User: Fold these one by one.
Assistant:
Number 1:
Amino acid sequence: MGRKIVLPPQEGKPSDVEEIKAESNYLRGTLVESMEDELSSGISDWDNRLMKFHGSYLQDDRDVRLEREHKKLEPAYQFMVRLRMPGGVATAGQWLKMDELAEKYGNQSFKITTRQTIQFHGILKWNMKKHMQELNSVLFDTIAACGDVNRNVMCNANPYQSQLHQEILEWSTKISEHLLPRTNAYYEIWLDKEKVIDTQEEQEPIYGSLYLPRKFKIGIAIPPANDVDVFSQDIGLIAVLENNQLVGFNVAIGGGMGMTHGDTATYPQLSRLIGYVSKDRIVDVCEKIMTVQRDYGDRSVRKYARFKYTVDRLGLEKVKEEVESRLGYTFEKVKPFNFEHTGDRYGWRRGDDGNYHFTLFIQNGRVRDFDNYPLKTALREIAEIHKGEFRFTGNQNVVIANVEAQDKEAISEIIEKYQLTDSDNYSALRRNSIACVALPTCGLAMAEAERYLPSLIEKIEGILDDNGLHNQEITIRMSGCPNGCSRAAMGEIGFIGKGPGKYNFYLGASHAGTRLNKIYKENIGEEEILSTLRPIIEHYAKERMDNEYFGDFVIRAGYVEAVTDGRHFHNQT
Ligand code: SRM
Ligand code: SF4
């Protein structure tokens, strides 16, 4: 092959972020000076852009923003720190360090994210370096956890097939590491390693000095579980098994959730299948796909810069041909697969290696000691005796994984002591819920999410209970703004923040994560949400077919149209 397809070049003046990257000397900028500057607890916008590549953002506590403004004080600046954790696996020792650091430097909590990693909030500038170094002491780093690079590669956290999961985890780690930025900046700035002066080629052979036009995300699913929301990824990989052995992957490209209110040229999109490759080729396939985005993504307007827009602008077939041309071979035909759900299966399960795994529901991923529910303490006690790992799921939950038979009782005792199984009594709706962080730390939040969804669910539960639907699995997702960090556009019920207490309300995604939802009502508050949902839920209870999911019912019953291509997400019916 070797044929080079020349796709139309992208036009427009490069955005300011491109300039920042170009002048940063491979992500160094003036971060050292900024972090040492004692005059402010913040850093400049310019350096904050670079901080992202180091897995951290400057934020301020929005709960006290106004009050501080009135007092003419600078905002209550603090940093968020996100760990790099391909496949979401931490040892018990690493858990204990996270627990300790949340107390010592953070806001006494940490958050399991929708991409299977951990975020700390509330770290003051003066503690940042110590925080990073202590993370490093347990072999954690935060490189590429944010920024215009490939992020944490997600993978299925299914404990039933532990052997297979292990292999998938190895692939996700290989892809992640292959696509890591190679600059030494992180080690110099945070870990005081010697400055290395390299040529451009040596520093970033895959990315070059401008990195990618925008963030880039990869996830691997093992059917029938779609717990990584494989179609929301820039590259979605679907494991193909023969005789229960992994042989290769179906490859889907161009998914993403973000959009901007009022700009219909932005939309959530599903990744689309382009073919199958054997497993030994997958790392190179991911690299070549990512380099097409590196070369053709929009570097002018950041809100149009994600790979999904590159794919839609150039055409799926053309992008596929370009990837094949870079690979030097063509994809095989997509192999059959079937997804059933996106959620986690809770409680104890025995893996095929005989070990036990306990999947624990963590409401919106927040690990802290709540009144009457000392969750963080309980998990610390478990970590103190646990010899296996903690595995984080894309649904913001945790699997206490690889518990040997003789250790199960001791862990069960702690689970009982702290009543961690109380969540078994939660409605299936709550157990299938996801909310992003939003207020008070997220600078982009327009409305609450994590702090509000639990109480909204309580009210929806009342309606479900009235209709005998307590145990009906329905996915519900809330994001505080249209960036969609909870993948709200993939919820059978979705909420996207519009303003304080107001949400756009979406219906009709599929339970298996194969279809987007669609707007049903715009800019509504709690009262209207509940009065709108009640009759739909009643209708569902009365007229659903056997095994019909809520997301499918609302389409059959004509509440919304099915959306299988994001370009129709905003179309009015
Ligand atoms: Fe996200 C930006 C939190 C998963 C789409 N996201 C942010 C920032 C960093 C806000 C900012 O830029 O100032 C949020 C930090 C809030 C805080 O206070 O901590 C933030 N995103 C999160 C997390 C923590 C949500 C959660 O509660 O779990 C998730 C961390 C994932 C991780 O570990 O890497 C998180 N973000 C997602 C996802 C879901 C996913 O990746 O599966 C999406 C949608 C998928 C996608 O990327 O298309 C997502 N986040 C965004 C976007 C919109 C990107 C776009 O295409 O337009 C932004 C804004 C941006 O990039 O400019 C954003
Ligand atoms: Fe913040 Fe919006 Fe992401 Fe929620 S969806 S964490 S509000 S950027």
Note: The mean pLDDT is 95.
Number 2:
Amino acid sequence: MQSTETNTNPAAKSLALFCKVVDNFGDIGICWRMARQLYVEHGITVTLWVDDLLSFQRICPQVHIDAEVQEIAGVIVRHWRDQQGTFTTADIADIVIEFFACDIPPGYIQAMAKCEPRPVWLNLEGLTAEEWVEGCHTLPSPHPSLPLTKHFYFPGFNNKTGGLLREASLGHERAAFQADTPTVAAFLQQLGLTEAEINSTKVSLFCYPHAPVTELLKVWKSGDKSMTCLVPEGVTSEAIAAFLGQPSKAGISGVHGALTVRVLPFIPQADYDKLLWACNINFVRGEDSFVRAQWANKPFIWHIYPQDKNLHHVKLNAFLKTTASATASLIALSHAWNGVSHPPLDWAEIWQDFQADLPEIARLSTQWQEKMQENGDMTSNLLKFVNTVRVASQKDAV
Ligand code: TRH
């Protein structure tokens, strides 16, 4: 963390991260990565308050769903059951983060207001490439009645935002894994892939149920190259069951024409990263897998989380405009995949164009990844901001 001559405040040592699982796995997925990074790379004592331990367990099998408090990988995990509870100043962390504007318990806020110095309170927002974020990033929001100020913190794609979540060792680990063919093969073998599947073009498929999966499977099936589509259990189950001719269950695979579809178990988060590194193309969704696909340094297609009034189309286009890796063919496939372009669509042509551009898309993906690294990583950027708030509040107090 940064220190300045005027800062006699000791650096923040503890952090409470409040996570409400709205749905699926992205909320806890992001919070879990960030909590570990804060502890491992910055030595911060982290308490992760999470309301849904079952979802957490899906991405992190060490989680005990009945435990009120548990320690996992150095992070204190507390089951956030309700808004009740009384807290003293001793319970309050130096930094308090509410993820996606979740309301933290009123008793906790009351105790925050009594702390001296006050904790730095942040609302960590969702990722979007829209320009308005730059104007809102780090904006203060004073509490209406208590002597507390909350700041908005936005991840993003340039240095006017908080940047993207990325562990310090990620690039090195990813590159070492991808360069080690036997390790990649052993990893895929463990997931049940046959040698032929390992040697084929591998596509990971993680999307929401409304994705036009059937159309794409049809094109892949009649392609001239053998392809293996790896889909987690529970994802786009109907379309996968229709292809397999039986219910989609982990371990089951089916072949039609050039295409093998294999259903994978839902794997721990660290393994999911490796899956993205091991595949040739990744279909990802939401926020966390979308960011990890960028760090995987492989071509990817994003299925964006749907929002009312097609707001997600605006967000998708903002990203496609920002990224340097969007060829016309990638934009066409992204639009078709996300329902921006309307049927009837020539899926064979859309896929062929994308496939023909893959070498160029791969080259641009690497460039994009390097550019994103220049923004620093979100956790370190956030701690630097915390320090500036602490220094400023110290000056105000003098
Ligand atoms: O699961 P998502 O759709 O999550 C979210 C939530 O819906 C959230 O409410 C919304 O705000 C956000 O999307 C935009 O997609 P995401 O963000 O990619 O999160 C998936 C997490 O699950 C990610 O951390 C990777 C992890 N994962 C595994 O650990 N193992 C697996 O096998 C798979 C497929 C994913």
Note: Residues 1-8 have pLDDT under 50 and may be disordered.
Number 3:
Amino acid sequence: MSAVIIDGKATSKKLRGEVYEKVAKLGAMGIKAGLAVVIVGDDPASRTYVNNKKKACAECGIYSEEYALSAETTEAELLALIDKLNAKEDINGILVQLPLPKHISEDKVINAIRPDKDVDAFHPQNVGKIMTGDFDFLPCTPAGVMALLEEYGIDVSGKRAAVIGRSNIVGKPQSMLLLHKNATVTICHSRTKDLAKILRESDIIVAAVGKAGFVTGDMVSEGAVVMDVGINRNAEGKLCGDVDYAAVSEKASFITPVPGGVGPMTITMLMKNTLKATCIQNNINLD
Ligand code: NAD
């Protein structure tokens, strides 16, 4: 079997078009959607992500403000900026690009963001809502995976799903979102025994490990759906995921490539969350 390649770029383009239309509807009501992006320090990967987020805002008609702070910024200064953005009326969503320099507590900063402006869905209040299923914002990367499954008509209900990785950003919320769609979910991590056996018994695999070529062809059963969240560099310095794409795509029914799979969806989901935040803050339902 040769897998259907899930096109994250095309799906992103379509969804960003939908966000643009809704943002335009808000505009016609005199309401502007606005996102503040905060970056501390000059990590090149973070800079690329921030630039891509600003580009996506422009594509969706969302107003954006960038706050680029030096690596020497103190925790108190950053918290003061968050306070200011929490109160700023033309800002509906606040995104603080992680990681932050070591001397700043990420937890303190995340906890300081107003939950209804927390478009990354990292605030404990939003994390709790993801657990109960009563959520306003979905965490961007796991939500991107779910949107791709939906776009390709892949029904998750009753399926055995394995998520590799248990981070707060990807693995844990991904497991919850699959569970909410009635999958039977196994969360695998660095201490999991017989990982290959669990994967072979799975209908859906989401890999979020951060190791190039981690999921090999012999770990995947014929017809499985394989979603690759990983972003790595291989020995030649080329961008690649956690999945041995050449071998696994011969067995899977659907597979996401890296680049061009889950990656573009993360920022698209951020745009959706910013739109949602604007609607919530203005008491408007556009769904
Ligand atoms: P992380 O380092 O916080 O977590 C990695 C997880 O992998 C851990 O929970 C760990 O238990 C698990 N793991 C490590 N070794 C393992 C092993 N041998 N067997 C089983 N599990 C093992 O990373 P993260 O932030 O969750 O990110 C994971 C990957 O996803 C990274 O490559 C990251 O760059 C990528 N990522 C991509 C996007 C995107 O937009 N596509 C967004 C976030 C993260």
Note: The chain has a mean pLDDT of 97.
